[in-house]
Amino acid sequence: xxxVRAPATSANLGSGFDVFGAALTRPADVxxxxxxxxxxxxxxxxxxxxxxxxxxxxxxxxxxxxxDAPARIHIDKGVRPASGLGSSAAxxxxxxxxxxxxxxxxxxxSELVPIAAEGEAVVxxxxxxxxxxxxxxxxxxVTTSEGTHAxxxxxxxxxCLPDVAVSTRDAxxxxxxxxxxxxxxxxxxxxATLAVGMCRSDPxxxxxxxxxxxxxxxxxxxxxxxxxxRAAAFDAGAAGVTVSGAGPAILAVCRDERRRGVAAAxxxxxxxxxxxxxxxxxxxxxxxxVLEE
Length: 293
Ligand SMILES: Nc1ncnc2c1ncn2[C@@H]1O[C@H](COP(=O)(O)OP(=O)(O)OP(=O)(O)O)[C@@H](O)[C@H]1O
Ligand SMILES: N[C@@H](CCO)C(=O)O
Prior knowledge:
By secondary structure, the chain is of the alpha+beta class. The protein has helices spanning 59-67, 87-102, 109-124, 132-137, 168-173, 181-199, 203-208, 216-220, 226-235, 259-272, and strands spanning 2-11, 20-35, 40-45, 71-77, 140-144, 147-151, 156-162, 240-243, 250-253, 277-283, 289-292. The chain folds into 2 domains: 2-151 and 285-292, Ribosomal Protein S5, domain 2, CATH 3.30.230; 156-283, Alpha-Beta Plaits (2-Layer Sandwich), CATH 3.30.70. Strands 1, 2, 3, 4, 5, 6 and 11 form a 7-stranded mixed sheet that branches. Helix 1 (59-67) crosses helix 3 (109-124) and helix 9 (226-235) runs antiparallel to helix 10 (259-272). Catalyzes the ATP-dependent phosphorylation of L-homoserine to L-homoserine phosphate.
């Protein structure tokens, strides 16, 4: 038996659509695997009632297939599905790390990234790796078709999760098909600024590089109260605010001493919009951890 804690993640970080990701210290899924002749999946925890236990439909089923590693699998969800916090990816990442150990497949963490990404194709139609990479490797990650680079960065964050669901599949439908040269130049400048900020563990620089003129404005329209929550976070001292993943969670970066105030301001703004929400005061953290084997 192997048990793995796989962290929630925030993808895109504004300017790095489908490329940037970050592991969060909390929340997390806990995935337990045991060898079995046939694969079975049991799901408990947050939002378990919305998650299929059929291996064809659950993200971990694709990981079992890719590793040829049938197992009795228990997923204890800490990351709510359809949250923008890499819920589907956390289970896939945890299963990839756990099954690799259980069956002694000997794959490196980097080699497990494309395997876990197969799970993302099951739910969103695209095997994007920007959530599974940080959930496996930890830190700030840059993922391209050439592979993934991970950087340890100590950056305080707040993620505010409203009590509504947005599916990645739906949120990908509003992504514009083209961008202008002006938008391209602005995005490259911001993404480069953010990456330098991560390398320096500088929250102000990371925040300055989060702005994205192309995808985020379209996604923000799907989140009731987004503009007010964003403004409230900035008023409380956030250095940058954007949609987390495909939403509806909203991500704010700030200095440590501002985290509590930023979280309270975001919750108040959602409440003023008539929406219940919860805020996680978190930071960039480590990847999947083996708890027991
Ligand atoms: N193990 C799993 N954990 C969570 N959701 C799963 C799992 N397997 C299948 N799903 C399905 O995936 C969908 C949620 O994934 P989706 O990508 O939409 O949200 P997310 O992972 O929270 O968001 P994001 O990728 O934007 O961070 C739900 O329809 C859920 O039923
Ligand atoms: N990059 C993906 C992450 C969400 O799973 C998106 O924004 O659609």
